[in-house]
Design goal:
Blueprint (H helix, E strand, L loop, with lengths): L3 H24 L16 H9 L6 E3 L5 H6 L4 H8 L33 H19 L5 E6 L6 H13 L3 E7 L2 E2 L2 E2 L9 H6 L4 E5 L4 H17 L5 E6 L20 H9 L2 H8 L2 H24 L16
Helix pairs in contact: 1-2, 1-10, 1-11, 2-8, 4-11, 5-6
This protein binds thiamine diphosphate.
């Protein structure tokens, strides 16, 4: 029997991500949002299943498609919206935009637009955490998320090898939506046996085919426990998923030839948000939905009412005077 409290919490987190991203898509054409947006609509269960198993002082690292993980890890929603609006109250002072969300207080490492780059940075963080644990006795973990395209970067395999060698407290999570912009997996990977490849480094792997949020959370919970007990080094999880909207921007591009409508429909049919909504009693569900509506209204108002950074800010956070 799945606990209603856990179900309501996972539902709230996934719904918040879905609804704020759909609201971002609505606002986008007004030009209030100053940076390109890579939306995770359809992929929410991975960020939520992963982050629900983490403590506040654990860290997630991410790609440019980073709203979902930022929100699921407890990143400040108002600061996220303000960052998209380019306002000084944004999580990066309004200078970075959607692709570079960061909230270290809540365990969100800065994201990057360059595919693969955050993977070795996460391993560096894990190395520091491993040393820190010797002093504090507290074993924190970091999760390095990337897309299937991210696994094609050389630094992905370099990091996997280094993490396995040093038994780092890192969990790799690949969000496999089978697309790198418009190019499908069949045109990019010689074989789809990714987990098998990773196992040759001595890393335990898990593959989840249906994006089941409870399965993801359970695998994460066990993996984190093993790392904290000191009985495990890195762990690798591949989660199948599907991006419902275009690669970058607010639109759906299902009329484009690279898309398979049947595949999209099969993912919509197993949508985790609809699934969890149906598991909750009407009262709980309505309460969660009302809370989500208020959070989004507040974030939008906060972003609108915040100021743009002062012109002098152009000269701060730069390498040279
Ligand atoms: C090093 C590098 N190469 C190419 C690009 C251009 N690019 C941006 S997103 C992307 C696709 C990445 O796909 P994937 O890692 O599967 O993530 P998804 O967009 O599906 O979340 C590419 C090739 C880039 N930003 N950085």
């Amino acid at each position: 029997m799945i606990d209603q409290i856990v179900t309501a919490r996972l539902y709230k987190s996934m719904l918040l991500i879905r609804r704020i991203e759909l609201r971002i898509a609505e606002i986008y054409h007004t030009d209030a949002i100053k940076s390109p947006v890579h939306l995770s609509v359809g992929q929410e269960s991975i960020a939520v299943g992963v982050c629900d198993a983490l403590e506040k002082d654990d860290i997630v690292s991410n790609t440019y498609r980073c709203h979902a993980t930022y929100i699921a890890k407890g990143g400040d929603l108002n600061s996220m919206m303000a960052e998209l609006y380019g306002k000084e109250t944004g999580c990066a002072g309004g200078k970075a935009g959607s692709m570079h969300l960061v909230d270290i207080k809540n365990g969100v490492m800065g994201a990057s637009a360059v595919v693969g780059t955050t993977i070795p940075v996460a391993a560096g963080y894990a190395l520091a955490m491993q040393k820190e644990a010797l002093l504090t006795g507290r074993r924190r973990v970091i999760v390095a998320l990337c897309g299937d395209g991210g696994t094609e970067e050389g630094c992905f395999y370099e990091t996997i090898n280094f993490a396995a060698l040093k038994k780092l407290p890192i969990i790799f999570v690949v969000e496999n939506n089978r697309l790198a912009i418009h190019t499908p997996l069949e045109k990019r990977w010689a074989t789809e046996r990714l987990c098998e490849r990773i196992e040759t480094y001595g890393i335990k792997t898990y593959k989840i085919d249906d994006a089941d949020v409870f399965k993801i959370r359970e695998i994460m919970t066990n993996a984190i426990a093993a790392i904290r007990e000191g009985t495990s080094g890195p762990i690798f999880i591949e989660c199948a998923t599907y991006r419902w909207l275009e690669h970058v921007g607010p639109l759906d591009d299902h009329s484009d030839s690279y898309r398979d409508t049947a595949e999209y429909q099969s993912w919509k049919d197993k949508d985790q948000i609809t699934r969890l909504a149906n598991m909750l009693d009407v009262e709980t569900r309505t309460q969660v939905e009302n809370e989500v509506t208020l959070l989004i209204q507040d974030a939008e108002k906060f972003a609108e009412e915040s100021s743009y950074p002062a012109a002098e800010e152009l000269y701060t956070h730069v390498y040279a005077n």
